[in-house]
Amino acid sequence: MTLRPAVTTDAADLSRLHAASFEDGWSKDDFVTWLARAEAMAIVGGECGTVAFGLALAAGADAELLTIAIDPAHRHAGWGRRILRALDAEALNRGLERWILEVARNNLPAIGLYKSSGFVEIGIRKAYYRVRGDRVDALVMSRRVGPEGGQDVA
Ligand SMILES: CC(C)(COP(=O)(O)OP(=O)(O)OC[C@H]1O[C@@H](n2cnc3c(N)ncnc32)[C@H](O)[C@@H]1OP(=O)(O)O)[C@@H](O)C(=O)NCCC(=O)NCCS
What we know:
Strand order of the largest sheet: 1-2-3-4-5-7-6
Helix content: 25-40%
Number of helices: 4
Number of strands: 7
Order of helices and strands: EHHEEEHEHEE
Radius of gyration: 15 Å
CATH topology: Aminopeptidase
Bound molecules: coenzyme A
């Protein structure tokens, strides 16, 4: 299994993977713009082709997870956890201190991944997402940057 930092030529793959996971898929150009930012931390994973990616931003001392998506045919095979760990190593390398993310309250696979990676809930944003016409709350979750077992520092 191979993980590496994403570069702008990965933008089409990231857009494809994002569209397979989310209603409001981000375009290739959106990813080109994100990946060009110095604050961006992005990891892709795959063997024969890209099947997983995660994108985060450094904001002050925070590492903000913007999105993570695994090809539906390759889920529950450890890619999500590997991508998260690789992003965490990059955040640690940049001297960041705290992870922060939002996740739809009904996204049980993602909540399972985050909780089992040491994230804890620190807040709720009411009606934050629109999913198939319905409003869904977002959980705000956090953990300390660094090897798992980190505590919430909010
Ligand atoms: C959420 C997502 C990234 C998880 O990636 P994944 O590669 O399938 O996850 P992993 O195989 O690394 O699993 C890691 C942990 O996540 C949790 N998890 C994964 N799939 C799960 C599921 N269907 N139900 C409950 N928990 C799940 C488990 O705790 C799992 O640990 P375990 O295998 O020891 O039980 C993936 O389902 C995905 O791409 N979803 C669509 C996009 C999305 O919702 N992104 C998050 C937006 S906030």
